[in-house]
Amino acid sequence: MNKRFIYVFVVLFTLLIFLPDMALSLEFTTEEQNWLDDVGQLSFSEVDWEPLSYTDEYPIYKGVIADYLQILGESTGLEMVFIQSSTWQDVLDKFTTEDIDFIPALSSEDNIGKEVILTDPYISFPLVIVTRSNIDFISETKELEGKRVGVGKGYTSHSFIKNNYPEIELVTTENVQEGLKLLNKGKIDAFVGHLAIMNVAIKKSHFDLRIAGKTEFVFDHRIGFSTEHARTVLIFNKVLSQITAEEHNRIYNRWIRLNTDKADYSLIWKVLIASLIIISGFIYWNMRIRRFLREMNTLKNELEAKNQRLNILTITDQLTGLYNRLKLDESLQYEALRFARYNHPFGIILIDIDHFKNINDTFGHPTGDKVLESISNLLLKNIRKADTLGRWGGEEFLIICPETDEQDIKQFAEKLRNKIDSFDFPEVHVSTASFGATISRKGDDMTRLMKRVDEALYSAKKNGRNRVIFK
Fold first, then answer.
1. Where are the domains of the chain?
2. What are phi and psi of 207, to 5 degrees?
3. Is 325-470 CATH 3.30.70.270?
4. Which of 85, 169, 181, 248 is the one with CA 20 to 30 A from 315?
5. Closest CA to 305 of 267, 356, 351
6. How far apart are CA 145 and CA 131, in angstroms?
7. Kindly report the CA angle at 368 between 364 and 374, in degrees rounded to 5?
8. CATH of domain 124-221
9. Which secondary-structure segment (H or E) carries 240?
10. CA neighbor of 406 nearest in space, from 438, 448, 441
11. pLDDT, tens digit, for every residue of 85-97?
């Protein structure tokens, strides 16, 4: 019992020492400070959307959103009061009736039921398409037309599909879990939802489901206030603009990446047990401390090696070895923040292999996989060291090019197109690709940027394929 007490004390003491201070060093004007003093506290509500928000331990509120609210609260001195809600509609009703001051995660597309003003975005994720595992990759949202598609009641996905794809038959559900159950039973053909939430929900459901594609919509998370809080929005924007890329990455890694790194828990337990042995040994057998330290270092090295391998797997596409969609979203977010802060332009190129379905149908999926691998290697050999290349999904690839202007991105895309056009592919011999390209512009958010490059790629395919279209 004494040994256990000592161990717990040491662990808690260590956590207190290294617990990060999330407050930013900001100076507010006298007018801003007086406003903050008058406001004092703000109330909000959310539902359980792991890993964005965990509400099951009420009144404790944690997750990605909670970390950003902690920064805002500690930087402004405002007390953030969490009010529990049973459903997303319940959250909206509380906001409409002024039972809460703000909703912490809204999109500019959301229909709240009353006038709302939004902060700048603080993190972004795409809306993705979830299907049963036996369904082929879905390259665009338009492929869902004529199908029964589930969306959460009042969710951003609901308004996005309803406003842009009237031919899709919408089935509203109370929450994500209900939607996945309907999908698993075959009562709907797909479910559209938030990438980070879907990633966790699919794993927890244990259903045979997968993310089969993405929509063109990128959910820019913003905080929504009623109009009387216009000054609060300006102050929050001031705080959000000072959050560093490192702090954004820390929050992302804490909640998003850790949710996919499941295989290292056994080693973590080994480290904790080894720590207990070391502490106990120091008390009773001081002469053996060096031996225990050596064992601890060995376990630590093994854990670091395992974590490094797991981190690589988390951000890597298994077939091509390139970055996957999660890593590309993270890199896009980083470049967008860098552009917003320092005005450093960047370009993106979206590539789609022409007639890839015909290749699979004619030569078989193994040959199709070889074509994907060949194009991956070809692109990898011809990009710059500063560029980020990844598989966007199916037969699509995305390249992020920092410090690039319009002329550079056009020439670079044309060079890659020629490389693919002249390459001798295994069995197929000849294959081409269509290219959409664009660069960041003032006032861009992730939604506009990705919509523009999607439209450019669509034009390239519509106008004969095997060409570069810049938009």
1. 21-121+222-257, 124-221, 265-314, 325-470
2. -85, 160
3. yes
4. 181
5. 267
6. 14
7. 150
8. 3.40.190.10
9. helix 230-240
10. 438
11. 988 889 999 999 9
